[in-house]
């Protein structure tokens, strides 16, 4: 498969790469990252998405692109309802509103936290339910769960969990208004009932990190970040509830789209026009699952407060614990964008991609309007994570989107063949990283070498004009799902 | 677990995991795919039998039916904490509908199960051979 270089950090997948493409594909990345994506067949998935009805501009992928199911991971696609545009649950993924939350402290690594890191990781481990199945920090009644689905973080603040800033500094202020809990199936409710405040498994984590380097001091200062400071990053999503919502609605759209004459090159791309009843129902359920995901990270964030208070014997407020931001990287949103010279209301799908609004966007919290939206990029256990901000040009280049992480380069089997969990833990401990895994076997599957170089991904996003790099964070303690 | 003429194997995928299953009939093939899923989730039990649980699934075709069946099994395994699949039998199979009985018993205590989010339609492949045997390939989001 051929891709054409547009400039140093963007590449075109020409119309005609697969039959029925309505727009070209555009993939952002360095040459090395693009070659991996071509070999991985992920670029073919970019071309497949370009065949969907009503797609506008281009079928895009961010520099952390890798092979997904249907849509590529790292994919961004925008659809115009007025032009027959569709919505596809596969374009959001099973882990609806999976995302990242960053919490700051006033604590310095060397003098205050380093001597207590083992104690802190153990305390965070106790406060962070993880692994498969049920067992979240909160077990909700049916009525309380429905409130979470409708009101997201707000419903938890009313129960006395968290602080007002947790809502103000969360994407969408912690609640998507168009949530329709009545469109969430009984099965999804059963899966979600016991899971609020749990990490899950796979690449999800709660990490103690140190601000290793500040690259843009003004933005870092606005976010309350400084070199040598300890922060906590949480990466997780909507757990079984979100997975079931996606399962239900992919099956529904798979049935509905056939009589509508919609044909897709991969059945996981099942979709319906945005005006269709099935689209309305999915959007309502997806927004409810997104509220659950934000609430899930909020409850885990409350556990972080508890763990720090226990270990340091001071109040969370005294320690300077405060939310920096919380942002999803699996979501579809109705957003206004300029395409071909006119403003259009589009349904922007981001699957393994993060919204990245530039400075001045009125929808941003006032705290961050001058610097642009914080974008939180989780690394892979032994590698750096990053704090970015949306660049002014991202709206025009990528529907205001950027990467979401490193992206896998090795399968789980390949990773396990190279190392076992105990050896990996020993190596990470040698690097000064304290671990609390849910499973030693699964730990090896998440070895840092199974992922692409996150620093190269972040450099490519900056080179492509999507984001600016504010700070690099390095892990010192990992509570692993 | 793997019988003559029936079995399963895992297929590598960068981010997820595929299952290749085969059997002497479509029903047996689906059973093998189900056992593969339970194995991956760490939700198998060494017991010879257990509490029967009936699964019903519908789909627009055999492929859709397989995905629906596996997603029912994901639901059962995820919500039945500490319980695993001791045995699995497809008892009725029509082109768009099936019923299966899962025997649930205490699972092997292990934290090594993968969290399977769902079975997907991605590169879904179901082949029914002339002699009635079948094979399937299905990818799971993990």
Structural class category of chain B: alpha+beta
Shape of chain A: globular
Question: What percentage of the residues of chain A does DSSP assign to strands (E)?
Answer: 25-35%
Mean pLDDT of chain B: 90
User: Approximately what portion of the residues of chain B adopt beta-strand conformation?
Assistant: 35-45%
Q: What this model shows, in words?
A:
The complex is a heterodimer of chains A (481) and B (142). Chain A is α+β, with helices and mostly antiparallel strands and 481 residues long. Chain A is 34% helix and 25% strand. Chain A has 17 helices and 19 strands. Chain A has helices spanning 31-39, 42-49, 109-113, 117-127, 142-151, 153-157, 164-168, 186-193, 217-223, 239-257, 277-312, 316-319, 394-398, 412-418, 421-430, 440-445, 454-463; strands at 4-7, 10-13, 25-28, 55-66, 73-80, 86-87, 99-108, 205-214, 229-236, 272-273, 322-328, 330-339, 342-351, 354-355, 374-377, 385-390, 401-402, 434-436, 467-480. In chain A, α8 (186-193) packs antiparallel against α10 and α10 (239-257) packs antiparallel against α11 (277-312). Chain B contains 2 helices and 8 strands. In chain B, strands 1, 2, 6, 7 and 8 form a 5-stranded antiparallel beta sheet that branches. A 3-stranded antiparallel beta sheet of chain B has the order 3-5-4. In chain B, α1 packs parallel to α2 (62-79). By secondary structure, chain B is α+β, with helices and mostly antiparallel strands. Chain B starts with 6 loop residues before the first strand and ends with a strand. Classes of the chains: A alpha+beta (481), B alpha+beta (142). Chains A and B meet through α8, α10 and α14 of A and α2 of B.
């Amino acid at each position: 498969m051929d891709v054409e270089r547009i400039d140093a950090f963007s590449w075109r997948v020409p119309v005609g790469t697969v039959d029925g493409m309505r727009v070209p594909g555009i993939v952002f990345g360095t040459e090395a990252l693009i070659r991996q994506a071509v070999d991985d067949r992920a670029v073919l998935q970019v071309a497949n998405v370009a065949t969907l009805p009503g797609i506008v501009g281009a079928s895009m992928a961010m520099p952390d692109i890798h092979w997904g199911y249907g849509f590529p991971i790292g994919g961004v696609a925008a659809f115009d309802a007025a032009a027959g545009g569709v919505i596809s649950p596969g374009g959001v993924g099973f882990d609806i509103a999976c995302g990242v939350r960053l919490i700051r402290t006033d604590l310095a690594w060397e003098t205050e936290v380093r001597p207590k890191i083992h104690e802190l990781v153990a305390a965070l481990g106790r406060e962070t339910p993880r692994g498969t199945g049920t067992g979240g920090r909160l077990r909700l009644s049916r009525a309380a769960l429905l409130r979470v689905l409708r009101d997201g973080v707000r419903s938890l603040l009313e129960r006395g969990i968290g602080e007002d800033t947790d809502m103000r500094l969360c994407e969408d202020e912690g609640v998507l208004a168009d949530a329709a809990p009545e469109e969430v199936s009984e099965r999804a409710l059963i899966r979600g009932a016991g899971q609020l405040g749990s990490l899950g498994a796979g690449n999800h984590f709660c990490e103690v990190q140190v601000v290793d380097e500040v690259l843009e001091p003004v933005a870092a200062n606005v976010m309350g970040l400084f070199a040598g400071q300890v922060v906590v990053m949480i990466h997780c999503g909507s757990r079984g509830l979100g997975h079931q919502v996606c399962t239900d609605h992919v099956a529904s759209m798979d049935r509905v789209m056939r009589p509508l004459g919609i044909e897709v090159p991969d059945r996981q791309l099942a979709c319906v026009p945005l005006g269709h009843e099935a689209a309305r129902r999915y959007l309502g359920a997806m927004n409810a699952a997104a509220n659950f995901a934000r609430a899930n990270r909020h409850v885990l964030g409350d556990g972080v407060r508890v763990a720090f208070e226990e270990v340091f014997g001071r109040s969370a407020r005294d320690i300077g614990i405060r939310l920096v931001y919380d942002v999803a990287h699996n979501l579809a949103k109705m957003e206004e964008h300029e395409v071909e010279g006119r403003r259009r209301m589009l349904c922007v799908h981001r699957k393994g991609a993060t919204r990245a609004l530039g400075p001045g966007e009125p929808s941003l919290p006032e705290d961050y309007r001058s610097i642009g939206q914080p974008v939180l990029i989780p690394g892979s256990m032994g590698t750096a994570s990053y704090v970015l901000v949306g660049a002014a040009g991202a709206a025009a280049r990528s529907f205001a989107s950027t990467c979401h992480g490193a992206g896998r380069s090795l399968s789980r089997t390949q990773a396990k063949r190279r190392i076992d969990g105990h050896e990996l833990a020993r190596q990470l401990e040698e690097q000064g990283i304290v671990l609390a895994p849910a499973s030693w076997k699964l730990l090896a599957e998440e070895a840092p070498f199974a992922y692409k170089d996150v620093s190269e991904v972040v450099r490519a996003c900056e080179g492509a004009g999507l984001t600016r790099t504010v700070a690099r964070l390095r892990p010192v303690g990992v509570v692993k799902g | 677990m793997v019988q003559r003429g029936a079995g399963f194997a895992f297929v590598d995928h960068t981010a997820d995991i595929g299952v290749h299953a085969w059997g002497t009939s479509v029903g047996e093939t689906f059973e093998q795919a189900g056992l593969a899923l339970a194995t991956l989730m760490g939700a198998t039990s060494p017991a010879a039998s257990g509490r029967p649980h009936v699964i019903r699934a519908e789909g627009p075709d055999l492929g859709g039916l397989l995905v629906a069946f596996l997603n029912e099994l994901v639901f059962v395994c995820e919500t039945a904490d500490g319980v695993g699949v001791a045995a699995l039998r497809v008892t009725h199979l029509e082109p768009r509908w099936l019923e299966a009985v899962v025997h649930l018993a205490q699972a092997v205590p292990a934290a090594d199960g993968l969290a399977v989010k769902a079975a997907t339609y991605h590169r879904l492949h179901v082949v029914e051979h002339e002699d009635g045997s079948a094979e399937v390939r299905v990818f799971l989001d993990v």
